[in-house]
Design a protein that fits this description.
- By secondary structure, this protein is an alpha/beta fold.
- It has three helices and seven strands.
- Helix 1 links the parallel strand 1 and strand 2.
- It is globular and about 35 Å long.
Length: 118
């Protein structure tokens, strides 16, 4: 219940996007429709080994500056996926806890949870 934002791996492929949607819905339940999600990959490109740390750094920067960056070029979500994708422009909001998920070639997966210091 403490999660305010989820930064997804977001490769923009049908299989990956559907799997990430199911994962967020399984984790957050009904809250999945209200917790903003994004991916920075369309903004910075897929930098392979550096993608995870760059997206985490961008998400933490937004956390402390009071915004969530948009998922560029996101025009429409899969009708079966009901996530609150930040698109178009940055969203001003307060984030205390974020999750950043990353997937790697060969099946390595990670979710990093960051919580604002008190």
């Amino acid at each position: 219940g403490a999660v305010d934002h989820v930064n997804l791996h977001g490769t923009g492929t049908l299989a990956n996007d559907a799997a990430e949607c199911r994962g967020v819905e399984a984790l957050l339940g009904e809250r999945a429709r209200r917790v903003p999600v994004n991916s920075l990959k369309p903004m910075i490109g897929h930098t392979l080994g550096a993608a995870g740390v760059l997206e985490l750094a961008g998400s933490v920067l937004g956390m402390y500056e009071g915004f969530i960056a948009p998922t560029l070029n996101h025009e429409a979500s899969d009708p079966a996926c009901h996530l609150d994708v930040v698109k178009g422009e940055s969203r001003s909001t307060h984030v205390d806890t974020l999750i950043s998920t990353k997937s790697a070639f060969g099946g390595a997966n990670v979710a990093i949870v960051v919580r604002r210091a008190a």
